[in-house]
Hints:
This protein has 142 residues and is an alpha/beta fold. The chain is 27% helix and 20% strand. The chain has helices at 44-49, 89-110, 131-140; strands spanning 20-23, 32-37, 59-64, 68-71, 79-82, 118-122. The strands form 2 sheets. A 4-stranded mixed β-sheet has the order 1-3-2-6. Strands 4-5 form a two-stranded antiparallel ribbon. The N and C termini lie far apart (75 Å).
Amino acid sequence: MDRKAHTTEHHISVRRTARFVTMGTPGEGIREVWFACHGYGELASTFIRGLVRLDAETRLIVAPEALGRFYLDPSHEKIGASWMTREDRLNEIWDYLNYLDAVHGEILSWITRLDVPFEELTFDGGHRLDDATLVEIAARHR
Length: 142
């Protein structure tokens, strides 16, 4: 008797711990908050160091880290992160929206002024910003 297996895909929501890294000191002096999302294969902790030219006393830079971590090399020495793949993409998008909303809420709880603007910097495909681009961005926002 040749029986074909019947499979059904299911989804559940789970609670998970995520990390983000900040540059700057939260407090009354903050006048703007920038969210900076790293590119493919990067980690927030190393990515944010490349944004040091954007650091200012009145600016808080927030780098959320993608939830999908993986090894970048065969020896498992280097680790990177990915925001999503095409697999189950709509659920991934909702998970990330919830994650970024939670980070936003956490940051708002640190800031005494509610009228602080939030800016976004996003990077895709693992492309790093060169120094000239960082200088140009910093000059536009001083």
